[in-house]
Design a protein that fits this description.
Shape: globular
Strand order of the largest sheet: 3-4-5-6-7-8-9
Distance between the termini: 40 Å
Strand content: 15-25%
Radius of gyration: 17 Å
Largest sheet: 7 strands, mixed
Structural class: alpha+beta
Order of helices and strands: HEEHEHEHEEEEEEHEHEHEEH
Oligomer: single chain
Number of strands: 14
Number of helices: 8
């Protein structure tokens, strides 16, 4: 991840031309760095485990049939998470890699391209930051701190969120970067988050990492997050199971 960042991403940070950025639709940009980094990661991961299915964000955009591989043993990659920030020339942005099997993440890695912060988790063994084991901790603030993504909600759900959920929390801006949001939930900065869009490359690594740290990530009905439910929306993340329960109760009233 570090090698690909240094070769394909950082040289282009604040150095993109107009032809280096495209809109995939719905204000969803992709840059030359995304495509180059994904190609390099695909080649490197194939060298580690030849023949294992590869599901990259850009590959899935170009060929939606790629998503069918999410139920198999596979790599799941977001080469530049937070592309909107990267293309605008500011932080945060990162890289996400997950190793999944049977629809569930087994290992996940989160790399902050600018700071070098490296989060890693393997199912059943805990969560780590730069090699040090971490335990999720709430912010300790009253009311709890919430980062709620309204971007992909329809108008009705957005208004319901504002009525039922927002009054109970201290709201903060979302970073438009899952590689930043999940660490915030474990490291005492944010307490809860709601994600409407739940694409595997955005959440596979971070959801496992937060759960391994002792937080909780699940669908609003309490069911576990699966990487192969690519058409499903709605996901709640929290720094503790108790904070997750409180938000899920409010969510159910929407």
């Amino acid at each position: 991840m570090e090698r690909v960042t240094d070769a394909a991403i950082l040289p282009r940070f604040r150095n993109l031309t107009s032809g280096d950025v495209e809109d995939k639709g719905g204000n969803d940009p992709v840059t030359i760095a995304d495509r180059d980094a994904e190609k390099r990661l695909r080649e490197a991961l194939y060298a580690l485990e030849p023949g294992l299915a590869f599901v990259g964000e850009e590959a899935a955009h170009d060929d939606p049939a790629t998503l069918d591989r999410l139920s198999d043993d596979c790599w799941i990659v977001d080469p530049v998470d937070g592309t909107r920030n990267f293309a605008a020339g500011h932080a945060p942005f990162g890289m996400l890699i997950a190793r999944a099997s049977g629809g569930f993440t087994q290992s996940g890695w989160i790399y902050d391209c600018l700071t070098g912060r490296f989060c890693a988790a393997h199912r059943g063994t805990g969560a780590f930051v730069n090699g040090e084991k971490v335990t999720a901790r709430p912010s300790g603030r009253t009311p709890p701190v919430a980062a709620i993504s309204l971007v992909y909600m329809d108008d009705a759900r957005r208004e319901a969120t504002k009525r039922h959920i927002e009054p109970n929390y201290e709201l903060v801006d979302i970073p438009y970067c899952a590689a930043e949001q999940y660490p915030r939930l474990a490291l005492g900065e944010n307490d809860v988050s709601i994600f409407e869009r739940t694409l595997a490359w955005d959440h596979a690594a971070g959801a496992l990492w937060l759960e391994e740290a002792g937080g909780k990530v699940a669908r609003p009905d309490g069911s576990a997050y699966r990487v192969d439910e690519h058409g499903r929306t709605g996901l709640i993340g929290a720094s503790s199971p108790g904070l997750w329960d409180d938000l899920a109760t409010l969510y159910a009233e929407m």
